[in-house]
Amino acid sequence: MRIIIKGGRVLNPGELDGLMDVYIQDDVIAGIVENADATPPFEADSADRIISADGCIVSPGLIDMHVHLREPGEEYKETIKTGIQAAAAGGFTGICCMPNTLPVNDSKEVTRYIIGQAKALASVRVFPIAAVSRGLAGDSLSEYGELKEAGAMGITDDGKPVKNSQLMRRALEYSKSIGLRMISHSEELALANGVMNEGPTATRLGLSGIPNAAESIMVMREIALAELTNTPVHIAHVSTRESVRAIRAAKAEGIPVTAETAPHYFTLTDQAVAEYDTHAKMNPPLRSPEDREAVCEALTDGTLDVIATDHAPHSDLEKQVPFDEAANGVIGLETSLSLGLRLVDAGVLTISRLIEIMALNPARILGLGSGLRVGGKADLTVIDLSVNYQYRAANGFSKSRNTPFDGWEFQGRAKCTLVSGRIVHEI
Amino acid sequence: MGLLKKDLLDIDSLSVDEIQTILDTADGLKEISSRPIKKVPTLRGKTVILFFHEPSTRTRMSFDIAAKRLSADSIAITANTSSMVKGETLIDTAKNLEAMAPDIIVMRHSSAGAPYLLAKALNAGVINAGDGMHAHPTQALLDMMTVREAKGDLAGLRIAIIGDIAHSRVARSNVAGFTKMGAEVRLAGPPTMIPQGADKLGAHVTYDMAEAIADVDVVMMLRVQKERQRSFLFPSEREYAARYGLNRHRLKTAKKDALIMHPGPMNRGVEISPDVADGPYSVILDQVANGVALRMALLYLLAGGVRNADHH
Ligand SMILES: [Zn+2]
Question: With contacts defined as CB-CB under 8 Å, which chain B residues touch A322?
């Protein structure tokens, strides 16, 4: 199979930036050729497909390192198949799936099951993240060695904080020898008994609030433990200015900490909850305008390394209920790139920085080979910057529709997603 | 004259004129309760469902009596008898209620915003009888009615609301109502009971009870819930009573004829001393009596009883 992606701006931050044609032979990139160059790896007329990329960015494949696929156990919300389709449509060539399934991914059987299901679909790559503690119960370590052998790429108790600091310390020390990256859901539960951000909006609505400190206290603990154990910790879904400040200071000290935020935190504030809209209910909650601004700034200056969606599908059963009874979470795979491009439009990020935080950095943190280079795997995203469209959750690939972005008008989206040289999504 | 709205969900969405209409109507209907035969046929043939997802004998009885005095048929459905306990969603339950063709559903729910969900799903009018910590509009309206009755006009009055503001839907709705009508509202309580951003509700906020009640026309005390002690909101009832309880000594700094209010049920000796609760300016029982008239007015206005009213 030979594919040529023609006339796009090939952008591999720090390495490549220019109008070039990308030649793909089977699963690898066979050549990256400037328009004027005379020696392509194969002739255009021997190609099976020529994809026009006029006005497009040709980027290394986007990676979403925080996705809930709900299979096994809650297939009515999402399956590995529908999740993968949504990911491909969103421009992702790889996704990490969180372990809070039923059963929990704390065993090689579940890890293998997920990988097997994903492989059979021959589409987007799925990297399972296993549980830090058995059953996410927070009282004993999962078998990291066996999980790693089965194909797990990292560990987290996401959805729940690791309450016991000693267990967290041992998990870091032990996982270090095995090479599994720790991802922390940072939350101090005793402070977090609310349903939205603490502040004037919560007070007006009569909803109980979660203060910023519920997150930043735990972020600070993780930083302390990363320093103690000299083991990298990745902080999931950062939402507050205090967390940003702590991470910035830790990085300046050389403490091995990385962090992600999600599109809803740099796009929305807690005012989105105003009419008891359960689509705006998530954990951590949408914060104040000052927090949103701090998150944007941290994406710009490198304090935050990654945009990850925390794609969390829920059916209407969990969302069409009173606000305080509604499940936390929003879907995000199909809107993440467009929301990121809004930051580029607003001048908050350069397109090059956006690709860094949506493609290169997640790959680097997870230890995946990535990048757009000759001889490398042909995992690519073609991003059409000029297309205008209205996002309709009802027409999406995800099984669930819990999103505050339904009906939003966007400019720019994935036109084509290739994994190992196969086109897994195209519009 | 009536209300343009289908529902009464909060105070914020009422205009000054609408509030005045409701209070005037309630004043007019109050007399019915003092007749030997306390019943008019105004809402005959209308059905009112009292859908109480959270127990509240007082408010439910007040609505029930109000409906009966207007000759409406009222049916009470509480959480235990509704099928919600069997895992049915609120919207399913609402649809089932609607199938019984009620004109008005009076709803009490432990979740803030739940009446909005119901109002959106139903054609019947919905009256919010208290939702979580959010709103209790009928309580605020009966409080306004009671104060207006005693003071003539709400504009320019100073009103202190003391206690657990954070968990009080009564406080939220009263701040909205009294400030809308031109009164000045002060909120006071220990910092643990004042929610973040309370000052943005339109009231003056203080932690000092003396400051709050100095020169006020009305002191409204809120019930302290003993179980809050377990979430560290106050160390003991003893200390709470000493710092934030209303007693005769403390009341001296308020205006001489300051009204004493309480939404009930009271903890005598904790947030209010018995002599103040039963004192000459206490209107706590008037609140209860006015509650019936006010709720009659709302049922009358929302159920479209204007056309067959016979008491004017
Ligand atoms: Zn999480």
Answer: 90, 109, 111-114, 117
Is the per-residue pLDDT at B104 higher than 60? yes
Rounded Cα gap, residues A177 and A231, in angstroms = 10
Cβ(B36)–Cβ(B110) below 8 Å? no
pTM of the model: 0.93
Instruction: Choose, from B44, B58, B226, B238, the residue flagged as catalytic.
Output: B58
Cβ separation of B197 and A204 shorter than 8 Å? yes
The DSSP call for residue B34 is G
Residues B106-137 pLDDT 10s = 999 999 999 999 999 899 999 999 999 999 99
Inter-chain CB proximity B197 and A324 less than 8 Å = no
Among A264, A425, A424, smallest CA distance to A336 is for A264
Which residues of chain A neighbour B116 with C-beta distances below 8 Å? 275-276
Task: Provide the percentage of residues in chain B whose pLDDT is more than 90.
Answer: 79
Strand-pair partners of A62 = A92
What is the per-residue pLDDT across B205-220, written as a single tens digit (0 to 9) for each?
999 999 999 999 999 9
What is the pLDDT at residue B92?
85
> Which whole-number Å values give the CA distances from B208 to B163, B165, B191, B198, B263, in the listed order?
11, 14, 10, 15, 22
A151: alpha, beta or left? (left if phi > 0; alpha if psi -120 to 50): left
Instruction: Return d(Cα B50, Cα B61) in angstroms, integer.
Output: 10
Pairing label, strands B158-162, B184-188: parallel
- Residues surrounding ion ligand 1 at CB below 5 Å: A 158, 185, 236
- Comparing CB atoms, the residue among B111, B133, B195 nearest residue A322 is B111
Whether residue B300 contacts residue B309, with contact meaning beta carbons closer than 8 Å, is answered with yes
Is the Cα torsion angle B112, B113, B119, B121 positive or negative in sign?
negative
Residues A107-135 pLDDT 10s:
999 999 999 999 999 999 999 999 999 99
ipTM of the complex: 0.90
